[in-house]
Prior knowledge:
The chain is mostly helical. The chain has helices at residues 5-15, 20-25, 29-40, 59-66, 72-102, 107-135, 137-155, 161-188, 192-247, 256-262.
Amino acid sequence: xxxxxxxxxxxxxxxxxxxxxxxxxxxxxxxxxxxxxxxxxxxxxxxxxxxxxxxxxxxxxxxxxxxxxxxxxxxxxxxxxxxxxxxxxxxxxxxxxxxxxxxxxxxxxxxxxxxxxxxxxxxxxxxxxxxxxxxxxxxxxxxxxxxxxxxxxxxxxxxxxxxxxxxxxxxxxxxxxxxxxxxxxxxxxxxxxxxxxxxxxxxxxxxxxxxxxxxxxxxxxxxxxxxxxxxxxxxxxxxxxxxxxxxxxxxxxxxxxxxxxxxxxxxx
Length: 268
């Protein structure tokens, strides 16, 4: 079944369009205009972009720039999400069978519940799209992280199987809904010449934290049980919520140029 991804690859070669912003940086203005018309149905005149200088930077320069005075607050917000909250989300997914076993669930029950959870993980992104397009990325992230923190802390105290199942479902739904919203937010905070490398750097480092957290969780469970583990997860969810609420910027309804030009950290 994993091999079926080759079908998506083949379809992508035909259907996925190149980024108009990237085409503009390469001077391919007419192609960019054609794609915008195809996607939106509106004519676009990008002729004024043709002679604008394109900033080219190395990977090292990108890292220096995202930690510079201009971008450090944006980078700090994203680090709180991807180096703290994101590893805890994946930890929850990885450890779920073990956690259920410790709560007295049989292997058959765990497998049956996994099917239901898979449904939750499938519909959560649609819910995320619904709220993030209306309320914006910033406050959607804050609300979802707060919900995940509260659900995690409560879950750690539960003992009744049916209630455990309900809270596990809601917790997985909340953390999965966070993923598409934060992925969008990650790409909105940097200008085009930094975006790909900056996103790659922050996301790649987050995978190292995922590996570290697996070892940490094992230690926490051994010493403090599931209540301790879920208290830790609650902490790693609430910290990004606070940081995004205080330092994050509102990106909904604004073009990337407007976000870059204003560079204001308001909670609007």
